[in-house]
Amino acid sequence: MTLDKQDVQFYQQNGYWIAPTLFGEEELTLFREHMDRIIQGDYETKRPPWARNIDPGAPIDRLIKIDNSYWCDSVIAKLVLSPVIGEIAAQLAGVEGIRLWHDQMLYKPSQSGGAVNVGWHQDYHYWQCVTPPNLLTAWVAFDDITEEIGCMKVVPGSHEWGLLPEGDFFEQDLQSLQEKIVKASGKPFETAKCEMPAGAVSFHHCLTLHGSGTNTSGRPRRSIAIHLMPDGSRYRAGSPADGHMNVKLLSGQDGDAFLGPYFPILHRARQQANPFC
Ligand SMILES: O=C(O)CCC(=O)C(=O)O
C-alpha cells in the first residue's frame, strides 16, 4: 500500500496519522474473539504473554494491558506482524525496514469506576533504551472509536518538542498532568481526537504526546497497540529505561541492534531469505 505524499507529510508535521480501514468485519470478529480468549487466560499457543496487569478471571475494573499478547495466539500474531502495517510504518518513518518492538493489548471497560485513563505521555519516555528515537505505534481499533468511548488524543506537533521531563501513562488526573507539561514545555497544549471506525489504524511517533480519558459509552473499547521500530535500531545502555522487557529479551551490549526472533521483521523494502534475522 503506497501512501500519498500528503499523508506522509501530515505524519511528519503532526506526529500522527490515521489510516483508512484496513480490517473488515470478519477479521474484527476474529480479533475480538481471540482477545477475549487471551483476557480469559485461554492461550492457544500455551505460551503466556510477557506481562499482564489483571489475572485471568479477575473483575475487569480498570484498563487491561497485556504486553506481547502475540506470543499467546496465532490470530493476534498474524495481526501484529501484518506486512501492510509494516509497509505503512516504513513509509511514515522514512525507513526501509520495520521490526516489532512489542505489542500491547488494551481493553478499556465502560464506567468501571477503576483506573481507565491513560495519562499524557511520550512513548519514548519508556523506550530510552533504544536509539534513534524514530519508533512509532500502529493502534488498531477493534471497535468504533469515539470521544465517548475514550478515544486516544494526541498533541499534534509535540514530536518536535524533544523528550519532556513530565509524562506518565498511569496518571489518572489528565488536567494536572497537562498543567505540568505546559509548565515544562512552555508550549500550547492543543489536542486532536483519534476518532475512527473499527478496523482503522492510527499511527503515532514515539515522541508525540498522547493519552485518553474515560469510557462512558456502555461498550468496551478494544484495541491493540503495535509498537514498531526501524530495522537497525540499537540498544542504548544506561538509560532510565534499562528495565524495559526488550533489554532483557535482547540480553546484549550497548550499541547492539535489536535483531532476532523477539524482534521480527514486518516489512523490508528488499526481501531477505529469513524474516527473523
Ligand atoms: O490506548 C490508549 O488510550 C493509549 C495507548 C498508548 O499509549 C499507545 O498506544 O502508545
Describe the 3D structure:
- The chain has one domain (5-252): q2cbj1_9rhob like domain (Jelly Rolls).
- It is 22% helix and 23% strand.
- It has helices at residues 5-14, 25-39, 74-80, 83-93, 174-185, 245-250; strands at 16-19, 51-52, 64-67, 97-108, 118-121, 130-131, 136-141, 152-154, 192-193, 201-205, 210-212, 221-230, 234-235, 265-268.
- Strands 1, 2, 3, 4, 7, 10, 12 and 14 form an eight-stranded antiparallel beta sheet that branches.
- The longest helix is centred in the first third of the chain and has 15 residues, at 25-39.
- The radius of gyration is 18 Å and the shape is globular.
- The relative contact order is 0.22.
- Bound molecules: 2-oxoglutaric acid.
- Residues 106, 118, 123, 137, 139, 152, 210, 212, 225 line the site of 2-oxoglutaric acid.
What's the CATH first level? Mainly Beta
Model regions low in confidence, pLDDT < 50 over at least 5 residues = none
Whole-Å distance between the termini?
24 Å
The gross shape turns out to be globular
What is the rounded Rg?
18 Å
- Overall structural class, as computed from helix and strand content, comes to alpha+beta
CATH topology annotation: Jelly Rolls
Mean pLDDT: 96
Number of domains: 1
CATH architecture heading: Sandwich
- Residues in helices, as a percent range: 10-25%
Based on DSSP secondary structure assignment, what is the total number of beta strands?
A: 14
Ligand kinds: 2-oxoglutaric acid
Number of helices: 6
Strand fraction equals 15-25%
